[in-house]
Amino acid sequence: MAEVFFFIAAAGVIAGAAGTVMLRNAFYSVLALVGHLLSLAALFLLLRAEFLAAAQVVVYAGAVMVLYVFVVAYVGGMGQPLAGSGTNLRPLSVVFGVALLVEFCIAILGSTLDLLGDEGAGFFPAFGTPARMGELLLTRYLLAFEAASFLLLVAAVGAVILARRRAGLEDPRELSVADLLRSNEGGTMVDHEERGSLAEAAGPPHR
Amino acid sequence: METVKTFGWMVLLFPLLGTVVIGLFRRFLPGKAPGYVGTLAIAAAFASAVVVFLNLQNLGEEERQVRAVAWDYATTLGVDAQLSLLIDPLSVLMILVVTGVSMLIHIYSISYMGSDRGYTRFFAYLNFFVFSMLLLVLAGNFLMLIAGWAFVGAASYLLISFWYRRTTATAAGIKAFVINVVGDVGLVIGTYFIFRGTGSLDFLKSFASVQDAFATNDGELVAGCIGLLVGAFAKSAQVPLHTWLPDAMEGPTPVSALIHAATMVTAGVYLIARMHPLFEQAPAAADVGAIVGCLTLLIAASIGLVVTDLKRVIAYSTMSQIGYMVMGVASGAYAAGLFHLMTHAFFKALLFMAAGSVIAAMAGNQDLDKMGGFRRAMPFTFGCMIIGGLALSGIPPFSGFFSKDEILAYVAARDDWHVVLAALGYVGALLTAIYTFRMIFRAFLGEPVPEARELEEGHLHHAEVHTNPATGEEEDTDVGFPGPDHHIAEREGSMKIAMGVLAILAIVGGFLQIPGVTHALDHFLEPTFADSRLFEEIEPSDTVEYGGLVLGAAMGLLGIGIAYLLWVRNPERPAAIRARLRAPYALFSHKWYFDELINGLIVRPFAWFGRFARGTFERLVVNGLFVGGTSGAVRAGSSAVRAAQSGFLRYYAALLLIGLTAVGLYFLLAAS
Amino acid sequence: MAITWYLVTSAIVFTIGAAGVLVRRNPLVILLCIELMLNAANLALVAFARANGNEDGQVFAVIVMVVAACEVAVGLGLIVALYRRKLPIDVDELRELQG
User: Which of A85, A97, B123, B401 is deepest in the core (most CB within 10 A)?
Assistant: First the structure.
């Protein structure tokens, strides 16, 4: 029974991966990745990593991918791919990708490591539960935990700084809250038309 | 011994000091002071030379070869290079002659060059020359000899092209220097061979071991001696390296008198005499020297018969007389050759000085065709010229008679094919007398030319427009050209003093070696030539000796008679003879075509090679291949490397992937 | 299922992600492919954790997820900044390290 589940989940994983890479539209790529992540969560469950599966779904597929969706919606995918600037790396990447895969497979399948041959060591009921994970994170791997939280802080601050507006570099099509509040006062333009509602104050439609 | 050494160094140092003082402190030496400083320096050198001479005679016979070493240069490398002097009778003779005649010429030059804009420079150069010549003759090893040799060549160049804004003068200077350098190369190569064989650069050590190091006529020794001969021929203007001497007459007359008559050109003779142990061990080379000397004396005498430039006649006469000297010392007649060197210095310097006086009266013009009848206008000059001419022609009892005939007697006493050389020497004596008195009769006898008439009335001719006498082009009287005024002997006291002393020496100088009566020079030079086989052996029999004297005198008188007939009695005969003997005349007047030969054989190929090198080799190989090629290779390489810095993110990612694959492959292989 | 299957799956996903980084030109999609590779690593880690019988691999995977999230945040912030300055969103066009 477990094998069936495994094959279904593995198929989903690989299909999602392939879709991410091969789909033209960026939005579809994101969706493919979401599917991939969900299948991967299923695989985690098969491997008795309950907490990790949940975290995968909630954090990864839930938060990170939603962020991706927002940005893709904002930026948009490319139009049509521009005619071959830089050289075509497709053949090269296929060749070396296959080579890498072959190497991995040889490494894995030819490995003399005993524990790879079977299902693995016996596990105890609390294996992979959040309680066990929390215990490990706060005792044995406390340093990594703290470092990771610090990393999160740094990343958050960095992202805000990177993406903030700079004076004079704004896209004139964009609006800020200050613009919305200002629009009812007199502007610098002559023959300035009275703007009425907030909806009209939004100005010309955004692209 | 210590005084000998000390005063030996002082002989060298005074002229050097003179040069430095005149050169560096010219601002403090106004007017004619540089001339006096220079003369004083040489007079001090002469005095030191006399002291050395006297002290050397006080030493015992065995000790008369004194080595004075100042310091070592490179003894640790196995080459005994030192700053050393060798003071022995030969070098003492040379320094006496050099400093004595130089002193007189300095005195002469104070007046002669008095109005020249380059007066100070002249005396600085002249003192430098005397220093170089003294270094050459006092040298105690090959290193110092080569140094002195090169300095003398440089001084000659500086002095020949003294009037440096005359193109003819600078061309002549370059010609002299280039030929001198050829001689320098020969000298260095010769030194190399000798050093390799004997293992020492020092003269005394080298000579002592030459018989052990080389067999008679050993190939290497002959090569070395030929190298030395090349150097001697270049410096002494022997065939075929003689073409620079006539052109060197572009220099001022005192320069011609000092360098190209009395001192520098005799350096070759000194060299052969000094190296006599080597030449006696390699008779083949000595024979070459003797033959070349004989050839030169004949060729030069034949050209002297037809040239029309006053100074060039005397120049060819110098070449011829040095041919005698070279022939003498190369055949083993060392004392005779050096005796002739001494007397020749006296009367040749005297002749040049008198010629300078005549040229000054002609306002710089040296053409014999334009001269005539100066006898009444310039009696003192005429008298000196006659004395010099008689000495040169070998008329008794003047000095040249004894010295020249002694050479010929000794050469004839060799009792082999050298007799032919001696016979040719007598023919040369006849020619000498002819061309000498041709010159004198044409310049002084006959109808006075306008310049002579002017001078008789007391007015020295002064050219309105100054021209280069050789090419006729107009020139200035500024720096680098001869000064505006000319000085003749009749009016300048110092010129008279110098010429007078030389005239007296030309008359009595021969009495040092009257055959059968006095042997002063023989005895004096014995310590130097004690190791010479030929010096002891050659002893002309009485018949040869006295017969030679009579023959020589007869040749001289015959020559004067012929010259009198041709240029005084029947002045139109020379033209007729020239018309009849057209081919020989062409050969002689083109100086036996040596200039054309050298031009075609050497100068043109070198010029072609230079053009080829610049146009083809330099352009294609050096610029194109080496410079362009290396820089092109670097440029290509760097542009190839630059392609890796493309900025394409995907390239970098690809490189990462490839690297990862490679590392994985490595580990797989390592594990298997 | 033997652990080997999971590892082979992980290898396949990793390779697909690597190839995707090389091939795609939209930086957003490149970031997605990097996510793929990270997830493949996570899968391998969890598989080994199961094989060894302790949760060390899972903790490692959690930290990897944190790092992935941070990286995504910063990367997307970069892309937004690019878009704001009207630069082309194409890694082939963004070749100069200027501005």
Answer: B123
Q: How far apart are CA C83 and CA B20, in angstroms?
A: 83
Q: Which of B647, B654, B657 sits opposite C95 (nearest CB)?
A: B647
Q: Which residue has the higher pLDDT, B362 or B388?
A: B388
Contact A47, A38 (CB under 8 A): no
Which chains neighbour A (Cβ–Cβ under 8 Å, 3 or more pairs)?
B, C
**ipTM (interface predicted TM):** 0.91
Q: Which amino acid is at B4?
A: V
Chain C residues with CB-CB distance to B647 below 8 A: 94-97
Mean pLDDT (whole number) for A100-125:
76
Chain C CB contacts of B653 under 8 Å are: 21-22
Angstroms from C3 CA to nearest CA on chain A = 5
Measure CB to CB from residue B650 to each of C22, C96, C97 and give the nearest one: C22
Closest CA to C79 of A68, B570, A90: A68
Mean pLDDT confidence for A19-24: 90
Is the minimum CB–CB distance between A134 and chain C shorter than 8 Å? no
How far is the C-alpha of B422 from the C-alpha of B548, rounded, in Å? 10
- pLDDT tens for B582-617 read 888 888 888 888 888 888 888 889 899 988 888 887
Reported as a single tens digit per residue, the pLDDT across B628-646 is 788 888 988 898 888 777 7
The CA-CA-CA angle for residues B50, B54, B56, to 5°, reads: 115
Size of interface A-C (CB pairs under 8 A): 245
DSSP B252-313: -HHHHHIIIIISGGGHHHHHHHHTHHHHHH-HHHHHHHHHHHHHHHHHHHHHHTT--BHHHH
Question: pLDDT for A64-84, tens place per residue?
Answer: 999 999 999 988 766 555 545
Q: pLDDT category, A196, cuts 50, 70, 90? A: very low
Q: Could you tell me the sign of the dihedral formed by the alpha carbons of B470, B475, B480, B483, in that order? A: positive
Burial class of residue A94 (count of CB atoms within 10 Å of its CB; 0-12, 13-18, 19+): middle
Instruction: Provide the chain C residues 18-47 that lie in CB contact (below 8 A) with chain B.
Output: 18, 21-23, 25, 30
- The chain C residue lying nearest A89, using CA atoms, is C23
Report percent pLDDT > 90 for chain B.
36
Helix (H, G, I), strand (E, B) or coil at B62: helix
**If we measure between CA atoms, which residue out of B202, B183, B186, B197 comes closest to residue B245?**
B183
CA atoms within 13 A on the CB side of A80: 2
Q: Which amino acid is at B241?
A: L
Share of chain B above pLDDT 70, in %: 100
Beta strands B66-72; B82-87: pairing state: antiparallel
How many residues would you count in chain C? 99
The pLDDT of residue A195 is above 60:
no
- Helix (H) / strand (E) element for A127: namely none
Q: What is the DSSP letter of A194?
A: P
Query: Are B37 and B21 contacting, i.e. CB atoms less than 8 angstroms apart?
Result: yes
- Tell me if B668 and A106 make a contact (CB, 8 A cut-off): yes
- Choosing among B650, B655, B656, B660, which should be mutated to test the C contact, i.e. which has the most C CBs within 10 A? B650
Q: What is the C-alpha separation between B147 and B231, in angstroms, rounded?
A: 13
From the list C69, C27, B647, the residue with the least C-alpha distance to A158 is C69
Give the 3-state DSSP-derived string for B83-134, with helices as H, strands as E and coil as C: EEEEECHHHHHHHHHHHHHHHHHHHHHHHHCCCCCCHHHHHHHHHHHHHHHH
With CA atoms as reference, the chain C residue closest to A54 would be C62
Per-residue pLDDT at B371: 85
Q: Can you name the residues that pair with B141 across neighbouring β-strands?
A: B202
Interchain contact, B661 vs A96, CB within 8 Å: yes
| Chosen from B656, B658, B667, B672 to mutate, greatest number of chain A CBs within 10 A | B658
Which of C18, C30, C96 faces B657 most closely, judged by CB atoms? C18
